[in-house]
Design a protein that fits this description.
Layout lengths: L2 H17 L4 H19 L22 E5 L6 E6 L9 E5 L10 H5 L2 H7 L3 E5 L25 H17 L6 E6 L1 H12 L4 E7 L10 H11 L6 H4 L6 H4 L2 H11 L2 E6 L13 H31 L4 E5 L7 H17 L3
Parallel strand pairs: 3-4, 3-5, 5-6, 6-7, 7-8
Antiparallel strand pairs: 1-2, 2-4
Helix pairs in contact: 1-10, 2-7, 2-11, 6-10, 10-11
Length: 347
Amino acid sequence: MRSGVVRENVADEHGRMLEADGRGRRRRWLRRSVAGVAFALALPFGIAVTDLATPAVASFDPAGHDFWVDSNMGPVKTRIFRAADGNTDRVVYALDGLRAGNDLSGWEIDTDISRVLPRWNINVVMPIGGMSSFYSDWIAPSNTNGQQRAYAWETFLTENLRWALRDRLGFNPNGNGVFGLSMGGSAALALAAYHPDQFRYAGSYSGYLNISGPGMREGLRLALLDAGGYNIDAMWGPPWDPRWLRNDPFMFAPLLRANGTRLWISSGNGQSGPRDVVNNPLDAYNLSNAMALETIALANTRAFQLRLDSLGPTNVHFDYTPIGVHNWHYWADQVYKMLPDLSANLG
């Protein structure tokens, strides 16, 4: 399906849906989303819509190996963790958050999934880098931080890396899974929507799934400037550019339904729990930020659920936890909760 047709169709449908009768619940969730974004923008500049990382609990996993692949962005490293039984059919990609580093993925640094998933005979692929990228193809290099080459992450993940994994490691290029947190959550859904032959399963944890909704674009602009100094106009153009609709899960939800993609969508409720320990003022500051960010993610996720519900039956599981803030231990919990369902749908 041509992307231009997709954008036009989903935009028309979105307009009709907002004008239709009986949409009070959607409007209420949009108002809550706006309020949440406004709250995040009122916080100090450095934490608007970012990913809060706890101190490392797992860190470097020696079982993984570096896998370098050339791309339009130059050589890109990916960390590979092989399935315990040696199979090459069952493959899942784990996408990082907004502050993705250039050495290791947050999934390896702050969780144990690189050790757990291979024991379920799943090969884990962790792309490294892509801070503030939304794992998408940008229209230009950012002119605010000296970036020399435009991001081309969608092309890398669906072409360069995909075929390199097949040709060099024998990995199955079809029927894979992909999941991510926050920025990586919406990106995982986009990859599955536009590349259904590669990704039949997608998971989003605390994802921003209504990113062209009121207030979100302004919040993301500040977030990208804070996380690496990136100009968001270099990503998808100005707010009226149709690329924004193409990359908004709320808008491309009909594609996920049409593809029959198995989805696992989760969010906390913005309330802290026993594991969110506060020992000093900095901990309290970080926790309050994580609570605000998760509240925004919850509003976005609820809006996305209502969007899917309006389309009819879909192949999706929603998981809303009674507590949970924007933090790694909650995202790891979701991976382990999702794991039986993921395992049953790979290969």
